[in-house]
Amino acid sequence: MRWQGRAGSGNIEDRRGMRMALPVGGGIGGLVLLLLISALTGTNPIDVIKSAPPSESVGTGGSDSVENDPQAQFVSVVLKSTEEVWEEIFRQRGADYQEPVLVLFTDATLSGCGVGQSAMGPFYCPVDRKLYLDLSFFRDLDTRFGAPGDFAQAYVVAHEVGHHIQTLTGVSERVNAMQQRTSQREGNQLSVRMELQADCYAGIWGHYAARQNLLDPGDAEEGLRAAAAIGDDRLQQQSQGRVVRESFTHGSSEQRVSWLRRGLDRGQLEACDTFATGTF
Questions:
Q1: pTM over 0.85
Q2: What does the alpha-carbon distance between residue 18 and residue 63 come to, in Å, rounded to a whole number?
Q3: Are 110 and 104 in contact, with CB atoms under 8 Å apart?
Q4: Which helix (H) or strand (E) segment is 13 a member of?
Q5: Domain boundaries, the chain
């Protein structure tokens, strides 16, 4: 990708090197949260409490700035590109695009949706409308999933932005309401459709990124390989030696590739209606 020298986004929140803010002076609620985070992260709650000033949040540590970190710079440039693309798409539809914030963190952090951990992979929280990313996931994408390349990494960011689009358009709220009234199996199917739509929206960004002269030859193929690498069927086969389609929550490799390609080729929101009958 031709990203060097391009402007980055102002919507980056860098929490790397910071410890999670914990309400250690918050009574029983703070204690329960502290114990939950301790269990999830493997830290000693006594050590956390000792390191914190009374009735205050845990302090922050140092972190390399985004400007001095090429990988963080890259993410910032990609986010800026998504902002430009979606602002234009929303403008054409007579709407204002509300930009999300992307949080960079290490190991674990607090979000509006609860505790986020690196093991969860990148995620989007509709409550605070923020994207959360531990940059170590990009290393996993290369070494563990066999999907190297800068556009593969950009696809990950654009996919999470796709979930933000679903929040702005009301899709997330409608799907969540439907999931409350359905079985686990039907809820999983709705989750699959949500994830595939986010893949398609990532493809829409890629479609316009090519017009921005941001892409190199072969970049789209990097993204398609990444989509295939993180399909539910492939991940289940690797982790448990068998595939259980009823438990899919993100879609098969074939589905993820298909919907990402659709967005890349068509570049239109109407092409990404994964909830229409017969789309699978």
A1: no
A2: 7
A3: no
A4: strand 12-14
A5: 12-18+60-272, 19-59
